[in-house]
Write a structure and sequence with these properties.
Elements lengths: L9 H10 L7 E6 L2 E6 L2 E6 L5 H11 L13 E5 L2 E7 L2 E2 L10 H13 L14 H14 L5 H11 L18 E3 L8 E3 L7 E3 L6 E3 L6 H9 L4 H13 L13 H26 L5 H20 L2
Keywords: Transferase
Protein name: Phosphotransferase enzyme family protein
InterPro entries: Aminoglycoside_PTrfase, Kinase-like_dom_sf
């Protein structure tokens, strides 16, 4: 085959789809097995993971465009397919600056989550698929199982911590009935942008895991970070107070202990994070960084605490 006839690499093909022709300039924002993202001027194009459920993804994108979520989720511009992958186009928004952690918009994230969780499923277009938080735990554990020569002590700690979770929290069963609300499914600071750029209001992005589920899952990462010593107590309390003040249903009323509601999701997220950390470190033959080590230490404590409770 003539080299000129070869298909363009996925990032270039994404840019061509976004801009309506080949040879378009772009900035590569992410290129991972689960998604490739490019910026083309004032828009961002994403190729979703191979094997994505097309109906579930379409439903999630429809939800993002719903008027019921105006001011909460960034709305899509259009969808399509590139290289056999589902793709979507979104307005560009200014992301959180990782070099300025002191400016992290924890309160804004909390208020957006509360608004998302208060949105009634009946106000949304069509059926809404399940939130994919537990599925991400299962995927992280499978990735760790396939990793080349991961740290054996770390693997044992993660597996022991995972064994403390109910099957459904590891993506191996059906969640308990009742209490499901609209959830983001993968909340972290990389899922926030200002739109219109550069200094518009904050909005949530990335709907690949959006769906109905336990709202505590969206608070799991900051809760787990706080428990591990990664997130400062002051930032955690600002986040928690803002979520409660905005009517969020996942952490109990103001002044109450949030952990009866958040503990399970935070432990599941800890297992997921530590499993991914070990799986990524193994092929690179690198040690865990400080944050990764703290999450693995949390897994050790989870497993130890369970062992101490057993007769």
């Amino acid at each position: 085959m003539n080299a000129l006839a070869l298909p363009a690499p996925l990032p270039a093909a994404l840019a061509a789809w976004a801009r309506g022709g080949p040879g378009q300039p772009y900035v590569l924002l992410a290129d991972r097995p689960d998604g490739t993202v490019v910026r083309c001027g004032d828009a961002v194009a994403k190729a979703h993971a191979p094997g994505s459920d097309p109906e579930a993804l379409a439903a999630r994108i429809r939800v993002a465009g719903s008027g019921a979520l105006a001011g909460v989720l960034l709305p899509p511009l259009r969808t399509g397919a590139v290289h056999g992958r589902p793709v979507s186009l979104w307005p560009y928004g200014t992301p959180v600056d990782p070099a300025r952690p002191e400016d992290a918009p924890w309160e804004e994230a909390a208020r957006l989550l509360a608004a998302l969780h208060r949105t009634g499923p009946r106000d949304l277009p069509g059926p809404v698929p399940p939130m994919r938080g537990p599925a991400k735990v299962a995927r992280a554990l499978r990735r760790l199982a396939r990793a080349p020569q991961p740290d054996p002590d770390g693997v044992r700690a993660v597996r022991a911590a995972a064994a403390t979770l109910p099957d459904w929290a590891r993506g191996e069963g059906v969640p308990p009935a009742g209490g499901a609300v609209l959830c983001h499914g993968d909340l972290h600071l990389g899922q926030l942008v200002r739109h219109p750029a550069p200094d518009g209001p904050w909005r949530l992005i990335d709907v690949d895991d959006l769906g109905l589920g336990a709202p505590a899952w969206d608070l799991a990462r900051p809760a787990a970070w706080y428990a591990a010593g990664i997130l400062a107590p002051e930032a955690w309390l600002r986040f928690l107070d803002a979520y409660r003040a905005a009517g969020g249903p996942a952490a109990g009323p103001p002044g109450s202990d949030p952990w009866p509601e958040l503990d399970l999701a935070a432990r599941a997220l800890t297992v997921q994070t530590a499993a991914l950390a070990l799986a990524k470190a193994a092929p690179a033959r690198r040690p865990l960084d400080e944050g990764e080590r703290l999450m693995l230490d949390s897994c050790v404590r989870m497993a130890t605490f369970r062992a101490e409770l057993e007769p």
